[in-house]
Structure formats: C-alpha cells, structure tokens
Fold these 2 entries.
Entry 1:
Amino acid sequence: MLQIMDNLEEGIHIIDHTGKIVYYNNSAEQIDGIDKEKAIGKHLLAIYPSLTDETSTLMTVMDTGISIYKKEQNFINYKGEKISTINTSIPLKNEDKILGAVEISKDITNVREMSEKIVDLQSKLYSGKNKKHTSRSNEYAKFNFRDIVSENKEMIRLKALARRAAEGDASILIYGDTGTGKELFVHSIHNGSKRRHNPFITQNCAALPASLLEGILFGTAKGGFTGAEDRQGLFELADGGTLFLDEINSMPLELQSKLLRVLQDGNIRRVGDTKTVDVDVRIITATNIPPEIAIEHKLLRKDLYYRLSVVNFEIPPLRDRVDDIPILADYFINKFNVKLNKNIEGISDDVLKLFENYPWEGNVRELENTIEGIMHIYDISTIEVEHIPTKIIKNQIKRTNIKENSLNKILEETERNLILEALKETGNNITHAAELLQIPRQTLQYRILKHKL
C-alpha cells in the first residue's frame, strides 16, 4: 500500500491527533519542496508556516471531525513558492474519537497561474474602454443573425424568437447538442442588443475546477487567501455587456448558488473580500443536455434554472432538419472556396442523398468539417461519392443492408436453409425430412416447390 501511495501523482499527508505528520508521499514532497524525512514527525504547521489552524484543511477536519471534499488551498511552501492545491481531507476515527486525518492533494498551481493570466489579459483588454472607443468589442461577438443559415421552419422560428429576445435584458438559456450552433445564437443576440458596443465575454464552465472558476467569475481580493491579488472577475469585466456561460450544467452546485445570488441581487463579492460590487451584466447560458435531465441528475439547481431560463429555446440537431443540408453544404463550399482559393461548384445528387441519410452526430460542425476536409484534399469541380469519407459510405451500406434484410426475407432464407439441411440429412426422403422438421408431409412439399428446391 505504501509503495502504491508513493507512486501516485497526488500528494498524500497523514497526521496524528496532535497534528504531527506520520506519512508523507513522494508527490507531497515535490509539491512542498521539502525532504519528507525531515517532515515526518514535525507538526503540520511547522512545515506549512503560511497556514493556520483555520486555513489548513487538515487541521480543520481534525477540529470539526467533518470531511472536506475538493477544496482549494493556497499556501507558500518551504521554498517560498506560491502553491495551489485541491484537497480532500478526511478525519480518521475510532468510534467518536479522532485519531488523525488523511489528505489527498492535487497540485493546480500551473492551472491557477494560467487562469490568473487569462483574467489579467481580459482585464487589460476591457479596462479603460468607454462607450466612445468600444468598436473592438465586436471582434469577440463576431456572428450576426445573417450568419445563421437555415430554411428550416423551426430554425426560422427560433431566429425570430432570438431577435425579439435580443431587444431586452432577460436571461436566456439555450439547449442544443454539441455542434448545433448555440454560439451563433449567443453572438447574434449580443450583437442584436443595446449592449452590442459593450464587452462580450464567454466562459466554459467545464474547463476549470470550481475553486478556480469562482475566482475567475467573481474576482479575488488581495489577502483573501495566501498569494491572492486584487483581480477583477468576468462579471466586473463584462459590466454593461453580456456574459456567456457555456455548459452551465458542469458548474458545481455550490458555485451555482453563488451565481443565483448574483442574479437576484445584481452584485458580486470577490473571493476573500467583504464588500460587494454592483454589476450590470446580461447572462446567457447554454447546456448540451436537456435542462430537465440536468435538474433530475442534480447537475443544475432548479431555482437557478428558473432564473436563467426567462427566455429559453432548444436548437434542433441537424438530423431533425435535413432540409437544411443542401443550403448549408453550399454555404460551406462558398466559404472554403474563398479561404482555400478553390472553385468547387457544389455536391452531386448522390452525395446529397448520402448526406441526408447520415446521422451527423456532430451536427452542423461535423458537416462543415467534412466539407472543409474534402476541399483541402481534392482539386475538383463537384464533390462526388468517391470524395466522401469512408464513415459516411459505411453508414449508407449499413442502412441499405437493414432495409433489404426485412424480417420476411430473413425468415424465408432461414426456412429454405433448414429444409435443405433436412433433405440432405435424410437423403432427400420427404417423409423423413418432414418428420425431422416436425411439419406435415404436404406442407414440406409445398415449401419445396415455393423455394424451387
């Protein structure tokens, strides 16, 4: 067990009831910058002088007897380096007596540094802008409603709904499979709104752990935790504009409750701060699973859902709007003709049939990537079947086989083979073959004539 723990990527600490370190694995040694032989036997806070009984997750669980899961801890290690970890700390008990505690730590120092650089860059990008010099903000919401190419009735209805929603400030929730074009709608709504000259900022909620995401969204206050600096979060940076939170169902529930308070109160509090800051931000969110499923599986708070979905709509997958495939194919061909300096005129009728029968699990994005890939490889005037990726051809072959092998045909083929086997085994004796097949002799004679045996 000790050998296994010594080879884990996560740091592992075990302390006794007095707070002294009794086990310290190799990863913890690397994270903390200290020889583990020197650490064992010493009090935890002697090894981590920047921590206290209140800020140390291990000491906290020793005091409370309650486990802590995936909590961020920031400290300065023995080398004077700023370290960020995600800790799970569990008290070790014998009945009601606490014998010690064990902690598993994942080093996220590089992730935190990267996230802080991102926020710093965003802060520099948006700070100092005023309404007289905001034309660059449109570089980041680069799509408009004219970029949503469709002749499908449902898509036309959704575009009209989105245009009307753009005129107000209500929160919007968009559901759709990956690749259906959720970002197109979000960009278009911002550019169709009165906020179009103000910041448009996006954040994928699945990209970062909860503790880092909280700091990125709400900002940090200097001294709020070890190594913390005064930093604006995305809510402050998006003030007056739009904040798009993608994959909202991936945001941890405890952070969703804080987001709900922002929506209710119209202000934010930086991590580690005591004062609040008023913000004027329109929230647009998206999810790639049905909201009701997300709520059922406790991935989305029901009360937050009601706040986010003042306006909500579902973008249908490409397989449910096959009538859009011809116009989308032409649109992408024209797009890549310009980009790649090609002169492809279109797709053949056979290719169109293949496209219409393909499920397009990656939706519009997969169709676009397919056409781009073909146009990169071939110098042709028309996209023909021989230019199509194998997976699309195989899908058509599979569909054809299923269609041709109907139940009646399969049953007839099975019956024919059984009769042949029976006749072979009985030396073509119809009476004995009928007995073997457990059917009347006359029935067998009829079946032999039917199958022309």
Entry 2:
Amino acid sequence: MTRSVPATPTVPTRVRTEPASFRDPANRVFHVGDEVLRGLDTGAAEHWRALTASTFFPALVAAGKVCATEEAPSALVPAGLPWAAVLRHERIPFVSHPYEWSFTMLRDAALLHTEILAAALADGFTTKDGSAYNLQWHGVQPVFIDVGSFEPVRDGEPWAGYRQFCQTVLYPLLLTAHLGVDFQPWLRAQVDGIEAEQLRPLFGGTRRLRPGVLTHLHLHGAMQQRNAAASTTDVRAQLRAAGFSRELLLSTVRGIEKLLRRLERRPTGSHWADYQRTCGYTAQDRLAKEQFVTAALTAGTRPRLVLDLGANDGRYSRLAAAYADHVVAVEQDPAVVDDLYRALRAEGQQRVLPLVLDLADPSPGGGWRGVERAGFAQRADADAVLALAVVHHLAIGRNVPLPEVVDWLAGLTARGGAVVVEFVHPDDPMAQRLLANKPEGLFPDYRRDAFEALLAARGRITERLELPSGTRTLYRAVMGG
C-alpha cells in the first residue's frame, strides 16, 4: 500500500526532541507541532541522497514497507538547527512497543526486517541497527521506520545490527516457539532485549538442537565472549581475512528468514479465547450493545483514534473501525491477541492494531530515564475509549478502587473525548462469579449509583442504556464536558 507524507500545514516552531532517538548521533528524530522530522549530519545526509537514488528504497516506500519520507520543506524547519539536512516522515497512528505485540506480530515484523535488509544488501546498502523498535504498524501491516539506519555496505564486514536483532527479535521468538513461554514480560524488563547468557541455561541438553538455538544462541554467545576484549576493527579485519563477503552476509540473512518462517507459537489453552460465548450475553443484549456503541461513535466528529480496552476477539474493534480512522484493540492474553492478529491479517483489516496489555499493569515508561520508551498512558490520547465488560474485572477482579478506574478511563482520552463504558451490576452472574472469590463485604461501593456519580463528576453523561438482561448498563460520557 503506497503512502505519502501529508501536505505541509502551518505549524508552531517549538521543537520537541524524541526521547527514544539519541543513540545514533548522526541523526535525531524531533517533532514540530504534529510533524515528525529527522535531522541528519553531513555523513547521514550523503547516505540519504544515495539512498533516494537507489533502486530498492523507493520501491519499499511505495509498497508501504518503509515509512513515507521526504526532505522537509524549508518553511517547516525552524532556523538554527545544527543539521545538514532534515527529513519529514509520515506519522504512525499509534506507537507501540515489541513487548506489546503477539508472537506472530513479532515474527512478521522480523520477516519484514530481513526482507528489507536483503533488498538493501543486493543494492549495496545495509542497516546499522537490528532492533525490533525500528518497526511500527499501520493496522496489521508492519512498517520500517528507522530510515537513518541505512548506510552503504562495506565488503568484509558483518551485519552491525545482528546482536540487536537476536536480543529484541530472535531470542524472544525462540523462547515462545521452543519453550512455550510468553516473551512479553522478558522483553519488557530490559530495553535492550534478552541477553544470550540469560537464555542459554534454558536451552541445554537436547534443546540445543532445536532450530536456531545452536547457531544464534550458543555459538553467537560463545563468539561474543571470545571477542569481548577485541576491538570492532580487529573483528572486522579477522572476518575480511577469513573471506567474509557481502554474498555470505546475504546468505546469512536468507538463512535467518528461513528460520523465522519455521518458528510457530505453541497452541495453548486460554480462558479468554472463548469469552464471547461464555460471558452470558443474550442475543438481545448483543444487538442492543452494538447499536449503542455505533450510536456513541457516530454522535460527534469522526474519531481519529479509538481504544478498545479488553477487546477479546475484536468484535467491537471491527465495529469501531467502520467509524474511526484507527483502532487500538487491547487484550491481556497473548494467545487471544495472536488469534485476533491472524484473523485481522486474513481479513485485510488495516484500521485495527491489536496489542498485548494487562490493563491493571499497563506498559510503564522504560529505558533511559524512564522516558526512552513512553508508557501506555503517555501514548493513549484517544478521541474515544471503549471499556465494555472491563470495569468489574478491574474493580472486583484486581481490587482497583472504582474512583481510580474512572479517573484512569478519563485520562486515556483527549479533553472532549468520549468514554463508552459498561457497568456490570453486582447481581450479574459474571460479577457474582468474581465476588465469590473475595472476602464478603470487600466492595461496598461497587454499585451502579456510585459508578454513575463518579462518571458524572469527570464528564457529562450523554446517553445511558440498560441492557435487556437488566444487569448491565451502558454509558457514553464526554470527558471534561
């Protein structure tokens, strides 16, 4: 899918540097208003000009596999910036992190990365980074965003991004494919990914023989230890002397791609996978709920971004996608998100991005000074939030006080944004099931009138509907209104 950079608007001149863009001094991402810009030093500017004259790069941009990029119009760039050239990128609808992706999402992003690297190598370029963070999403289509990573390849040198690729992409995939362990908590714990020495003890004995483990974990880790005292220049000289060539590097990349295609997520049972069938809704409830959500989303200006919290199989995310530019479907079970991603991919749905996220423990800020990777709350500036069958799970299931739940929902929207929320009454069968596992009298304030008062204190309730079953009420509230 071909994408272009939007037309240049009039923007303020205040420059905001991107906290995640500081590790490469040759280029730096910053923001001016809503524009995403990248400053290049003299060497990086030369690489950019060579890149635009190549065959592979324009083709990848035209296919939507690399983010649309152009040299920024001079009127857009504030005076006095210390860059030889400034680029302008298309804006990603919602920035996510690899530990919020499902297994197949990470694998598809990895396959795009190897496809781009192979195309670059064949045309005399390489990428100096291999991080999973260099990819983002348009719906379920991955897109490579680190244009500053491309540089001319030098014969006899290995791929500089290989270690990053292993730590943020390949090792997480091996962990889930071979051991059935969800990689998300491991990847979230360290911004640089999983170290080889952390994973090697889990792959001893016959596990060493599983696809990719011996070559990319044990041998790679041993090579790192052996060359720990050697300089990068020494290592490159050794490789050149041993006959390492661009053709051998391209063969290695194709071998990684072949390995990635062999890796599959182990099927696992999940309580949430069958939730829509077992949650107790009648056909009348479902119809009334869908009609209410449709009316709520079409009551005002078309939403730019909708968050669907507790999306499960994506029923309401798909509905929202018909009335919004972009939808982020949040669900805590990695297996459920993986199934949803595969289904959306098969449907060709380009407006919905599914993410793995525990609503009671959402992604925090991470990396350098805790801001290199922004937390979910800092990224979630939505025009509308769907919180359907979520409040009781947080308030009863996770012991989050009801006022905290309402404050949190209000904080996920821009001022004037809408929250569409479902309150499950204490006598509802699902609420009763949760309460049965809690000490009696623990939630005296979990009542419909208390919830409604809290919601009205944070916004203006514009619509309400009690579902036909009589134990659930839907609200639409405009926050700050």
